[in-house]
Amino acid sequence: MQAATTLLTLHKHSVYCMPFTPFHLGPASVLALALLRYVSLPALLLGSIAPDIQPLLIMFFNLPGTLHGPILHSLIGSTLLLALPLTALVFILKKPIQNITSPLKLNQKPTFPSILAGALIGVYSHILLDAYLYIDIQPFYPLNVNPLLSQSTNRYLEMYTACTISFIVALLMYGFYLWKKHNSTP
After folding, report:
1. Helix (H, G, I), strand (E, B) or coil at 97
2. Model pTM greater than 0.90?
């Protein structure tokens, strides 16, 4: 119970003082590595953290609104305002991005569809993970409901544990990917 209380305290601090957390990158990394042949890894990873621009702007500029409001924390808002512009940006910058991912042995030949798919999966995974936690999110805006909100009193502990485990799984997947790549090269 002490661990849950500590995590809730950390969560409250992170939501109100530091909206960018690495937790979304765990599940996003698993998805990106599992779908590496089909989606742009950078687009998926960037998409998985992009919706948190909204709470950052609200807090930094003291703007009205909820941290997880429908502008960027809904499927329609994240599609139009994040995934599509992010797709264009990653497509334009694909050569510099390849220079960054190449030393990591994550050589991809991104196409516009693979970048779009990565950006969409990234922002949607963020929305779905947040919908489990936050009462102020409306993932299916304009519908004013969140059927994905957990009623569990331990939902933060559950989600943070799952995200941490998924990051460890992603590291293992990446290690296996490198091992397989190394052993398949003549």
Report:
1. helix
2. no
- Structural domain contains residue 15: no
Q: Tell me if 19 sits within 8 A of 56, measured CB to CB.
A: yes
pLDDT in tens, 16-45: 433 456 789 999 999 999 999 999 999 999
Q: Is residue 3 part of a domain?
A: no
Among candidates 74, 51, 55, which has minimal Cα distance to 148?
A: 74
Lookup: tokens for 152: 């569990």
Closest CA to 156 of 128, 129, 122, 121: 129
Has residue 9 been placed in a domain?
Answer: no
Within 8 A by CB and 6+ apart from 167, the residues are 22, 25, 26, 29
Q: What is the pLDDT of residues 104-153, one digit of tens each?
A: 998 899 999 999 999 999 999 999 999 999 999 999 999 999 999 999 99
80 DSSP 8-state letter: I
In a domain? residue 165: yes
H-helix or E-strand spanning residue 128? helix 112-133
In terms of residue numbers, what domain contains 135? Answer: 23-184
How many domains in the chain? 1
